[in-house]
Design brief:
Blueprint (H helix, E strand, L loop, with lengths): L2 H11 L9 H4 L24 H24 L12 H10 L1 H16 L4 H29 L8 H7 L4 H11 L3 H16 L1 H13 L3 H31 L3 H19 L1 H10 L7 H20 L10 H7 L3 H11 L13 H10 L4 H17 L23 E2 L2 E5 L2 E5 L2 E5 L2 H9 L1 H4 L5 H6 L8 H8 L13 H11 L6
Length: about 500
């Protein structure tokens, strides 16, 4: 039997119409979003993956992955990274991204349950298993670092409580509380097809360039799945567009919303690329131009035949590419006493690299802050911000982004809804709120929760204890135990020396 025949049996002959209950009663969620589907048999998985092929393919990848992880651990691979500053990128990835893989696993399981097409259910089931596997392999790969560096030990607890981790957490909770079609558009298309290259490609390249072969290996292991997810995400959008013309305005609104939400989430990635990798691969600006402006531009040019246009506010994202990473690093430097990663002022050669990558903006708008902090630290007065930042009601990033076209002014938008004022970092976030205010007035904003006394107590030590954030995991890298240990280990390590 050919793969095509096996796939047809899996995705067609296992589907049937219910008789004891109506199909609408069994699948109540695939109509309320307004998406019209005339023919579910039009849904085709472009890979036509069958169950036996799926398990065989994945088991082979697992064997190779764990063999390399064993070798990495037995050879103390953690000592081969560029220096201990790099490990902070892994801390951010483990606490910020790995839980999202688990959330995606749950989300696709729920989406599959609520779509009445058998092909769609099978595709969601396989992606759900993929996402669970990704979470597991990331945790296993990074676990070696937990034995030697601070800040890894309580990552699931931190994901639920730490202030900056509410940014990725709120993104997925927003998607998982949407309907099944919006969830798939948000995750499979807008994030995985349009934006995921900006996360995985620079991060895995950065891991390779900085000597972290364990992380590179899980990246390669996940990449074939990601390619399948990306292709499926595009096919899902095309499927909906081809089913009925009435679907176009709904899908365009979702594309606009989830592009902006994903772009704001990638603020953390921009900071990682420009500041947290001791050996740089490319700047955030270069990555944005390559993976969104060129590749994404080609994608939306292809989708124009369906009537889909470029996401709203993509021009604003392009204007911010010169500033995004510097603004994010500034936020974390200010509030580093309450973060589970270390920050630092870049070394002189790294500042020269930033000047070269951002010749029109860095020296004028961002270098003066870094020089001031550098002088303060040398004088024994490391700067930390004693207050709490105002957060955007939508993306939950501290409101430090700049007005479009004016990097000297902080962007500030405000909406009054049912007598309360809500604040936003951008027009993109403000628009999303206006479309669904009932949803976003319920947002769990970390700073608001601290002021309301819901985070362990009114003092900083009480809040940090509620975060389970140990003092050695926070603060400046120059003063950290991670740095002291690293210098002791590598001085004793002839290979590293």
């Amino acid at each position: 039997m050919s793969i095509k025949e096996k796939y047809a049996l899996l995705t067609r002959d296992l589907g049937w119409d219910t008789t004891y209950q109506s199909m609408d009663a069994v699948f109540p969620q695939d109509k309320f979003e307004g998406i019209v589907i005339h023919n579910w048999d039009g849904w085709e998985d472009p890979f036509r993956m069958t169950m036996d092929a799926y398990w065989k393919f994945q088991s082979e990848k697992e064997r190779k992955l764990y063999a390399i992880i064993d070798a990495f651990q037995q050879n103390n691979g953690q000592l081969n990274v560029t220096d201990a500053r790099y490990v902070n990128a892994l801390k951010l990835f483990l606490t910020g991204v790995s839980p999202l893989e688990y959330a995606a696993h749950r989300g696709f399981a729920m989406a599959g349950r609520n779509l009445r097409g058998a092909g769609a259910r099978v595709a969601c089931q396989m992606q759900s298993v993929d996402e669970l596997r990704h979470c597991q392999t990331q945790v296993h790969t990074i676990s070696q670092y937990n034995k030697f560096f601070n800040g890894f030990e309580d990552w699931t607890h931190m994901h639920d409580r730490l202030w900056y981790l509410s940014v990725p957490k709120s993104y997925f909770e927003d998607a998982m509380t949407a309907g099944p079609f919006e969830f798939i558009t948000a995750i499979s298309f807008s994030f995985e097809y349009v934006l995921t290259n900006l996360l995985f490609m620079p991060f895995m390249s950065g891991a390779a360039f900085n000597g972290d072969m364990a992380t590179v290996t899980f990246g390669f292991s996940a990449q074939s799945d990601e390619s399948r997810h990306m292709t499926l995400g595009l096919e899902v959008v095309k499927f909906m567009l081809e089913q009925d013309p009435a679907n176009l305005p709904i899908i365009q609104k979702w594309v606009d919303k989830w592009f902006w939400r994903g772009y704001r989430l990638l603020t953390l990635v921009a900071m990682m690329m420009d500041y947290m990798l001791p050996k740089k691969v490319m700047s955030w600006k270069e990555a944005w131009e390559m993976y969104f402006e060129q590749n994404g531009g080609a994608l939306f040019a292809d989708l124009a035949r369906y009537g889909v246009r470029m996401p709203k506010y993509h021009e604003q994202a392009a204007q911010e590419k010169d500033h995004l990473s510097h603004i994010a690093w500034s936020i974390f430097y200010n509030f580093n006493h309450a973060a589970a990663i270390h920050t630092w002022v870049p070394e002189e050669n790294e500042l020269d690299w930033l000047k070269a990558q951002y010749p029109d903006t860095f020296e004028e708008h961002h270098l003066p802050h870094l020089r001031y902090w550098q002088e303060q630290h040398k004088a024994g007065k490391r700067w930390t911000n004693p207050g709490l930042p105002m957060l955007c009601q939508l993306c939950q990033v501290p409101m430090a982004f700049r007005e479009p076209g004016d990097p000297t002014q902080v962007c500030y938008r405000e909406v009054k809804y049912e007598g309360e004022n809500y604040h936003f970092c951008s027009d993109g976030c403000c628009d999303i709120f206006k479309n669904e205010p009932e949803k976003y007035v319920q947002a769990w904003l970390p700073v608001h929760q601290i002021f309301q006394g819901n985070c362990g107590g009114p003092t900083l030590p009480e809040v940090l204890d509620w975060y389970h954030l140990k003092p050695e995991a926070a603060g400046d890298y120059a003063d950290s135990a991670d740095r002291a240990n690293w210098e002791r280990w590598t001085n004793d390590n002839p290979k590293a020396a």
